[in-house]
Amino acid sequence: MSRRSLSRGRANMLHRGFRILLPLAILLRSTDAVDNGLALTPQMGWNTWNTFACNINEGTIIGAAKALKKLKLDEYGYHYVVMDDCWSLHERNATGYLQYDPAKFPKGIKRLADEIHAMGLGFGMYSSAGKMTCGRYPGSLHFEEKDADLFAEWGVDYLKYDNCFNEGQSGTPLISFERYERMSKALNKTGRPILYSMCNWGEDSPWDWAPTIANSWRMSGDIVNVFDRYDDRCPCEDYICRLPGHHCSIMNIINKAAPLGQKAHTGAWNDLDMLEVGNDNLDYEEQKLHFTIWAMVKSPLIMGHDIMHTSDQTLEILTNKDIIDLSQGKWGVGFRSYKRGKSQLWLQDSKDGSGDMVVAVINNGDQERGLMIDFADIFLDEWDRRKVEYQVTDLWTKEDLGLVKDELKVKVKPHGVFVGRLKFTGDPKMKPKTKKFHGGPDEL
Ligand code: GAL
């Protein structure tokens, strides 16, 4: 069981099947991102790492998939169950293929993937573009085609591809690009559509080169369940960063991500890392703020909490349909209008020509504050802006705030967010231009 090699006959059958399906998927896609037709909206799911780290096995993963189904999270869009690091043996087999750890996965990975598929979910796998994974298991550097073939044969739908032990093959965008492109090509060559989730922590500015080879790219070091804190393990405050590190707080990642939205588009997203919703140490307000901004900037929404013990409050946050809609619906990529002291204004344009908008104010200070959202910070032209009225709905309380013109006054709890959907009440042809409109995903 532990030593295996790819069965040529089956692989060829798979290739033939997907040779028909892949061009179809490519036709259906609306951009030239990674040529796999996937992640047309940011991917959603659950990943083992933040709760279980290396303590994973068949039971953990099937248990998580069953919990996801029982909570009906799949009906909200959470589709992929992603197995992170530490699933393999420490050696490849005699023919150079990766081997799953039979003590952790007695039935094997293919059976595991089959069971997840039978639940209607997608199965995610992990490897690293290095000699070893971060957990020091064999990585895929120089084994890209072999590993991609094996993953396709196992029925993998998603690959998270890390950056540890890359043997110095980083430091310029081109070197990193070529290393990650090899796996992109290998995945596409299998003929199986496999979502490609790059995890190189923002090194060498992946937002400049990943959109043509990957569905998403991490733009920062690893997240931690802390709202706002400087930490030497995550030394950068800015997206230009020589040492991405780990233990990056929610606000640290938000500040680094703010200018990067312009680089995302359909099928190609900035990944702000897995969600900390449902993990210790973040209060209710902080979790809502975190989830709101991740949705607005169209980061993948990959849960990382102990899903088998999901509290009602966690479920309430993760299943807020209006917030999920900011990620999956008609809205462009969110962008920041301003950061002033301890408050920030974030905006999202609708892409359906309606003139609707989403407006969010963050209060990352320690006191509750009354904040005034001045429409001058939203719209370019004063004359235009004076003529418009919006019907406002608070997307967390669901309260209808009535018709609003010129300004909107809101109270925001400490470390909290107000997010409102602004329904344009005028003639859509007359919709005013927002201040920093920058494209984002294709028009619907
Ligand atoms: C890190 C990665 C984490 C997790 C970990 C596994 O590099 O950013 O999300 O995958 O490796 O060892």
UniProtKB/TrEMBL annotation:
Signal peptide as annotated in the record: 1-33
Molecular-function GO term, any one: alpha-galactosidase activity
Keyword Calcium: no
CDD domains: GH27
Example of a GO biological process term: melibiose catabolic process
Domain spans labelled Alpha galactosidase C-terminal: 341-422
Major location (coarse): secreted
EC number(s) recorded for this UniProt protein: 3.2.1.22
Record's GO cellular component terms: extracellular region
Family, as annotated: Belongs to the glycosyl hydrolase 27 family.
Name of this protein: Alpha-galactosidase
Source organism phylogeny: Eukaryota, Fungi, Dikarya, Ascomycota, Pezizomycotina
